[in-house]
Amino acid sequence: MTYHIDFDIDLRRNPYPGRYIVIEGIDGSGKSTQVQRVKEALAKRGVTVLETAEPNTHDAIGVLIRDVLAAKVKIPSVAIQYLFSANRATTHQEIIHPALQEGKTVISHRCFWSAVAYGMVDRADAVKDEAGNQILIAQSILSMYHQFIFPDSTFYLRVPVNTALSRIGSMAKDKEIYEKREKLEKIAKGYEWLLQKFSNEFVVIDGEGDVEEITARIVERINRS
Asked: Mind listing the pLDDT tens digit for each residue in 51-87?
């Protein structure tokens, strides 16, 4: 039996004095580099900055996620997002909220948005718009209906999949389950869907540009916000 349920997505805004900044992108887009560089640039200007990430491997759930992503532990793909949601809840309550309350600037590798883009990879059999909407609804329910604060600024580093794969190939680390061409192409399409659906929530940055110029653009935009 089929039931129809209406569901609005209401993004919870940051009520605290601190700023919540997120850098998003597919694997190999340069997120880690820019998080570190932006953090250092803001610190030089006297801003107190806290760096965090999704997943946050400082708790047992985050460690399990890393093992899953590294293919050391196998679980059904649908279960991965449940782990991310549990890890996100801990990170927000124990790290992000207290820091924002204290007036600190939080910079994070990824946030809720990546759960949608990466979650759509496992819904390849569904219509893109339908799959995205269903994941948004599911993630809203998993967050106990929008208990996660959304970023004040989200920067999306847009790079071609070929560039991302080249960068991943040069990294001295084990490859993760999403770091494959077919999956990265689907993830990139998921992000583009988000950019269309929530155009006011993202600042798109050319991730192929000069590293210093990318940092400067991000910091300039932060200062203007």
From this structure: 999 999 988 999 999 999 999 999 988 788 889 888 9
Would you say residue 219 has pLDDT above 80? yes
Q: What is the pLDDT of residues 128-141, one digit of tens each?
A: 566 556 666 555 54
Burial of 200 (0-12, 13-18, 19+ CB in 10 A): exposed
The closest alpha carbon to 138, from 179, 79, 190, 98, belongs to 79
| Whether residue 107 has pLDDT greater than 70 | yes
Distance, CA of 25 to CA of 214 (rounded, Å): 14
Q: What is the DSSP letter of 121?
A: G
Q: Is it true that the peptide bond before 76 is cis, omega within 30 degrees of 0?
A: no
Closest by alpha carbon to 197, among 136, 115, 146? Answer: 136
Share of the chain above pLDDT 90, in %: 60
- Distances from the Cα of 178 to the Cα of 77, 181, 187, angstroms: 11, 9, 9
Residue 90, amino acid: T
Euclidean distance between CA atoms 91 and 58, whole angstroms: 9
Residue 196 exposed, middle or buried by CB count within 10 Å (0-12, 13-18, 19+) = exposed
3-state SS class at 30: coil
Coil, strand, or helix at residue 23?
Answer: strand
Q: Per the CATH hierarchy, to which homologous superfamily does domain 23-224 belong?
A: P-loop containing nucleotide triphosphate hydrolases (3.40.50.300)
